[in-house]
Amino acid sequence: MNNRKLPVVAVLLTFLLCSCATWSSRQISVSLADVEAVNASVFETGVALTVRIANESETPLALRGSVYRLYVNGVFVGRGLSDEALEVAPFSTATQRVPLYVENLSMLGKIRMWAAGSKIEYRLDSRLHPVTGSGVHAESTGELDWRMFTQAVEHLR
User: Fold this and answer.
1) In this structure, which long-range contacts are made by residues 22-26, counting pairs with CB atoms below 8 Å and at least 24 apart in sequence?
2) DSSP structure class, residue 106
3) In-domain check, residue 10
């Protein structure tokens, strides 16, 4: 290799490695803060997810949108989309309310099965889309009290 090109290649490699390290070291987590039934019909139930986004990095996180996929007891329940611009300050958290729609007819048999127990396990797969750079994936898991959902849906009737 030509000796003149070596410094240019070294600078480019350093830049690429540093930029990759910046994205991979960014500490971002998403958790489910609240679930609220907002409307119910024969065909679908509208749910409002409140998610908490934590930025453990020293740089602000500017989002242009996000996608959330909710799984209950390992079964895909619904997808929530948000085009809300959101900035999470360094070492801080922010919440975002996201509408999610559950297709009742496809879930009817599973809902009956889940209703037999009081606790259900959930997994929230999140894809955050920063203003600059590529998407960031986060996943959180936990348990919900099934009675909370049934009471919320009864309240809407």
Assistant:
1) 22/59, 23/133, 23/134, 23/136, 25/57, 26/55, 26/57, 26/59, 26/61, 26/136
2) H
3) no
- Determine the Cα angle at 76 with ends 148 and 50, to 5°: 45
Angle at the Cα of 121 from the Cα atoms of 118 and 71, rounded to 5 degrees: 125
Contacts of 10 (CB under 8 A, 6+ apart): none
- Name the 3-class secondary structure at 108: helix
What was the pLDDT predicted at 103? 74
CATH classification of the domain holding 61: 2.60.40.1820
**What pLDDT digit, counting tens, does each position of 36-72 carry?**
888 877 778 888 999 999 999 999 999 999 999 999 8
For 11-28, the pLDDT digits (tens) are 444 444 333 334 333 589
Q: Is residue 18 part of a domain?
A: no
Distance CA 147, CA 75 (A): 19
Segment 69-81 shows an average pLDDT of 90
